[in-house]
Design goal:
alpha+beta; Uridine Diphospho-n-acetylenolpyruvylglucosamine Reductase, domain 3; Alpha-Beta Plaits; 2 domains; nine-stranded antiparallel beta sheet; five-stranded antiparallel beta sheet; 13 helices
């Protein structure tokens, strides 16, 4: 077997094979015949989440097209968000939000609770109105909105089965402007966190945690809200006059346009263009979602560690995620502040920093992003999710033989 790795090259998969069924019937046969199986998307997880000692299954060969309904679209789960955008734009449709990368698979992003930003914008998983999957018994199952199991089957980490299609909520297409602000000071950010992170439809703050200068504030404003280019939305900050990358020294060609010209939703909501290599390439990533009520305490806790992070940190991003009702979502039950860390690919030095961060953040209710690196395990995590036991029961019911479990699920969920 040819060695395969995740996107960042930081984890080599141990699966004995990667299979790509061409039909649903073939997928059902594979699930029924394999003792251990894991779905594999665009490989953007940074741990052994998608690994197995059995086979990994890709959805890349399954046929399917977008099907448009009343306010929803049904889309093959293996598609990337950039591919879906290309199908929605000619139809005059849009998603409410996107992550920073359009390169990620829809099923993988939904399953791990991936998100964009915006005080009133929930995670990408919150747009799901129905899930279709092949369960651990080989059964084809569809769960629609209103079904008692759907909130547990959306952010499900690939532990209920192989998701084959998703129905997503859509709206009429819209335009946004994007402006990067510079010169924001930490005292101004902390004085009115709501004013900064709620200044526009989507706001991201990029920082390295040290000094008085915060860093960059990426402001994405919807044109249909009547706002136009945001020129004075951030207190004490000024708009950059040239295109910026959030990581110093990186080429700006792969970032989406920032100088205030309106563009369609899929051209402004992501930080990176579909046709370019995203982010820094060889890197590690971690992220923690904090209850909004503890936002200032969390920022102060990380600031205290700022100097210790410098040698291995590219940049951090602060984003906001609106509350949802999805059992394993980082924003389950209340709005969240997301603290993202892009690290140098140096696991030996990053790991102890994760433990130091978690010592400070987990007592504040921090929930790690499932697809990224963290140190917390099941005993510490269970208390953070009110529906934890309900999810474990659902996993046992839909995958009674444990085909989709792996070392990660044993360590992190106790499965």
């Amino acid at each position: 077997m040819t060695t395969r790795t995740n996107w960042a090259g930081s984890h080599a998969y141990s699966a004995r094979d990667l299979v790509a069924p061409a039909t649903l019937a073939e997928l059902q046969d594979i699930v029924a015949s394999e003792a251990h199986i894991r779905p594999l998307g665009t490989r953007h997880s940074f741990s052994d989440l998608a690994d197995t000692d059995g086979v990994q299954v890709s959805l890349s060969a399954l046929p399917g097209e977008v099907e448009v309904g009343e306010g929803v679209v049904r889309v093959p789960a293996g598609w990337r968000y950039g591919d879906l955008a290309a199908a929605l734009v000619p139809r005059g449709l849009a998603l409410a939000n996107l992550a920073s990368l359009p390169h990620i698979s829809i099923a993988g992003a939904v399953a791990t609770g991936t998100h964009g930003s915006g005080r009133r914008n929930a995670s990408l998983a919150a747009a799901v109105r129905a899930v279709e999957l092949v369960t651990g018994t080989g059964e084809l199952l569809r769960l629609d909105r209103g079904h008692a199991d759907l909130p547990g089957a959306v952010v499900a980490l690939g532990l209920l089965g192989v998701v084959t299609a998703l129905e997503l909520e859509v709206e009429p297409a819209y335009e946004l402007t994007q402006v990067v602000f510079e010169g924001l000071r930490w005292p101004d950010l902390l004085e009115d966190l709501e004013a900064v992170l709620g200044a526009a439809y989507s706001v991201s703050v990029f920082t390295r945690w040290v000094g008085d200068d915060v860093g960059q504030v990426w402001v994405k404003d919807r044109v249909d809200a009547g706002s136009g280019p945001a020129r004075s939305a951030i207190p004490g900050a000024v708009p950059a006059t040239e295109q910026r990358h959030m990581i110093a020294g990186m080429p700006v060609d792969n970032t989406t346009p920032q100088l205030g010209a309106p563009g369609l939703w899929h051209e402004r909501l992501p930080h990176f263009r579909m046709g370019f290599l995203p982010s820094a390439g060889e890197e590690l990533q971690s992220e923690y979602l904090l209850p909004w009520r503890h936002a200032r305490e969390a920022l102060a806790a990380v600031r205290d560690l700022g100097e210790a992070l410098q040698d291995v940190l590219f940049v951090s991003e602060l984003r906001t995620v609106a509350a949802d009702d999805l059992w394993l979502s980082g924003a389950y039950g209340e709005d969240a502040l997301a603290l993202h860390f892009t690290w140098h690919r140096d696991l030996e030095r990053v790991t102890p920093l994760l433990h130091r961060l978690e010592e400070r953040l987990l007592p504040l209710g921090a929930r790690p992003h499932w697809g990224k690196l963290f140190g917390a395990e099941a005993p510490a995590l269970a208390a953070l999710y009110p529906r934890w036991r309900d999810f474990l029961d659902l996993a046992a019911r839909l995958d009674p033989q444990g085909r989709f479990r792996n070392g990660w699920s044993a360590r992190v969920l106790g499965l």
